[in-house]
């Protein structure tokens, strides 16, 4: 994969992208197994929130799954040259609206594993010209290539948050 251009993403994405090495596909692949293992170590704290009004680990994992799907949808649309503005989402509302607050972390980890494996296969099949395409998501320009980094960095970001605030 080519080097990522700093002009191919908005400022909000930088905090995720900065967490990822140039070996983004290797990191993406390693997360397929590593992130579910990380979740399995948190089973005792599944309903713990580090402060009032903050998400529990279960809610945070639900957010991660939703975000994986939404960012990948954006990546697919942009890689395919879609010119419409892609909607953003209200992450707090999505977490509030989920009715799956009884799901196990093991089940959610398995879901992540399948999602990420599918996403990685799709991304590996993209040509450089498709990855270089820029589209609009939430009225901000971003490339499909940058979204690959955001997908990986989003997981790392939340693993860091869990390690710092939940453990």
Description:
It contains 7 helices and 2 strands. The protein has helices spanning 14-17, 24-40, 57-79, 91-97, 105-125, 128-131, 144-166, and strands spanning 134-137, 140-143. It has a single domain (6-166), classed as Up-down Bundle (Four Helix Bundle (Hemerythrin (Met), subunit A)). 28% of the residues are buried. The model has no long low-confidence stretch (mean pLDDT 95). It starts with 13 loop residues before the first helix and ends with a helix. A hairpin with a 2-residue loop joins β1 (134-137) and β2. It has a two-stranded antiparallel sheet. α2 (24-40) runs antiparallel to α5 (105-125), α3 (57-79) packs across α4 and α3 (57-79) packs parallel to α5 (105-125). By secondary structure, the protein is mainly α.
Layout of helices and strands:
Layout: H1 14-17, H2 24-40, H3 57-79, H4 91-97, H5 105-125, H6 128-131, E1 134-137, E2 140-143, H7 144-166
Antiparallel strand pairs: 1-2
């Amino acid at each position: 994969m080519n080097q990522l251009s700093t002009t191919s993403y908005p400022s909000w994405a930088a905090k995720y992208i900065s967490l990822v090495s140039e070996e983004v596909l290797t990191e993406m692949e390693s997360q397929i197994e590593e992130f579910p293992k990380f979740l399995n170590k948190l089973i005792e704290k599944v309903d713990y929130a580090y402060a009032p009004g903050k998400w529990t680990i279960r809610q945070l994992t639900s957010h991660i799954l939703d975000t994986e799907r939404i960012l990948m949808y954006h990546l697919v649309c942009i890689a395919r040259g879609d010119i419409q503005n892609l909607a953003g989402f209200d992450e707090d509302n999505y977490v509030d609206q989920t009715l799956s607050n009884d799901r196990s972390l093991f089940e959610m980890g398995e879901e992540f594993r399948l999602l990420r494996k599918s996403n990685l296969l799709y991304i590996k099949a993209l040509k450089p010209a498709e990855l270089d395409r820029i589209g609009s998501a939430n009225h901000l320009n971003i490339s499909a290539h940058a979204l690959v980094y955001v997908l990986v960095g989003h997981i790392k970001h939340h693993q860091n948050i869990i390690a710092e605030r939940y453990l």
